[in-house]
Design brief:
This protein is of the alpha/beta class. It is 38% helix and 26% strand. Helix 1 packs across helix 3.
Length: 282
C-alpha cells in the first residue's frame, strides 16, 4: 500500500510506511537505541535471543554478531509489512535471524526457550502489557535476562512534547494521542511493579538519554507524518493540504524548540527508561 514519503520539495507517493520507517527512522533513532539496549544487557556467544516487537529488526541485527553463528536470534512482530522489510535487508554477521509474525501476549515459543528476551520501545503499545510481560518471562530460561526500553515522560522529551502540543492545536484536542501514547509507561515505579508481578527478579531501571539529529525541524515533522502512526492524521488529504499541515506544524515546533534548532540541524535529547531484569535461577 502506498504511503506519502517526504521529499525535499514536498510529498511523493512511493514507499510503504514500513520502508519509510526503516529508511528514515531506524538510522537516526531506532538503531542507536538498539545498540544501547544490547550493550546494557550484554550478550554472550551461543546465547538464544528473542527480539519482541522487532519492527524491521534493528535489535535483532545488532544482537546477531554478539551471539555468533552458534547462537540464535528470533525476531517477532505483529506487523507483516515490518517483517517483510526486515527479511529483505542484507543479513548481519553471526546468527541467522528467524522472522516470526505473532503477538507479544501469546508468543509462539515454548517455555524457557531463550536465554535473553529484548523489547525496544514497544511495551507501551501492547494491548495487554501485563500478559506480554508474563509471556516474556515464560519463554525465558532459568537465570535468563530481559532488557526492555520505553520512553520516559513526554515532559522529559522536548521534541515529542512540542509536536504533541502543535498537533492538538492544528487538529483538535486528542489529535496527539498516538504521539503521547509513546510515553504511556513513563513511571519507573509502575514499571518495576509490573515486572515483579510478571515474575521477574532483580529489576533495575536505568534512565538513558540519546542525542537525536535531523537536518531540520521540517524534515523531522515530515518523517513523523509519514513513517509513524501520525500519518493517519493526513492520510485523506491531497498533497497541497498535506504540505500546509507540515508547514504549520514545522513552524509551531520550531518556535517551541529554538534552543535545539539551527539553520542546518535539529538536535534534541530523547530520554527512555531501560528495564533490566532476570528470571529466577532454577
Amino acid at each position: 500500500m502506498a504511503r506519502v514519503t517526504p521529499g525535499r520539495h514536498g510529498w511523493q507517493l512511493e514507499r510503504t510506511s514500513a520502508e519509510l520507517y526503516e529508511r528514515l527512522l531506524v538510522p537516526t533513532v531506532t538503531l542507536p537505541w538498539a545498540h544501547d539496549l544490547v550493550d546494557r544487557v550484554g550478550l554472550r556467544p551461543g546465547e538464544r535471543v528473542l527480539d519482541v516487537a522487532c519492527g524491521t529488526g534493528a535489535v535483532a541485527r545488532v544482537a546477531a554478531p554478539d551471539v555468533g553463528e552458534g547462537g540464535r536470534v528470533a525476531a517477532l512482530d505483529v506487523n507483516r509489512g515490518m517483517l517483510a522489510v526486515g527479511r529483505s535487508l542484507p543479513p548481519p554477521a553471526g546468527a541467522s535471524i528467524e522472522w516470526h509474525e505473532g503477538s507479544a501476549d501469546a508468543l509462539p515459543f515454548g517455555d524457557c526457550e531463550f536465554d535473553v528476551v529484548l523489547c525496544q520501545l514497544g511495551l507501551q503499545f501492547f494491548p495487554d502489557g501485563p500478559a506480554a510481560l508474563r509471556e516474556l518471562r515464560r519463554v525465558l530460561a532459568a537465570g535468563g535476562r530481559a532488557g526492555v526500553s520505553v520512553y520516559s515522560s513526554i515532559d522529559r522529551n522536548p521534541a515529542a512534547r512540542a509536536l504533541a502540543s502543535a498537533l492538538d492545536r492544528q487538529f483538535a484536542d486528542g489529535a496527539s494521542s498516538a504521539k503521547r501514547s509513546e510515553h504511556a509507561l513513563a513511571d519507573p515505579q509502575q514499571l518495576r511493579e509490573s515486572f515483579a508481578m510478571a515474575g521477574f527478579v532483580g529489576v533495575e531501571i536505568q534512565t538513558v538519554t540519546q542525542t537525536v539529529r535531523f537536518a531540520s525541524v521540517d524534515e523531522w515533522v515530515r518523517i513523523q507524518l509519514s513513517a509513524t502512526p501520525l500519518a493517519a492524521l493526513v492520510a485523506d488529504r491531497d498533497v497541497t493540504r498535506r504540505e500546509r499541515v507540515v508547514v504549520s506544524l514545522s513552524t509551531a515546533v520550531g518556535e517551541a524548540m529554538t534552543d535545539f534548532a539551527s539553520d542546518n540541524a535539529f538536535v534534541f535529547p530523547q530520554e527512555a527508561h531501560v528495564v533490566l531484569a532476570s528470571a529466577s535461577p532454577a
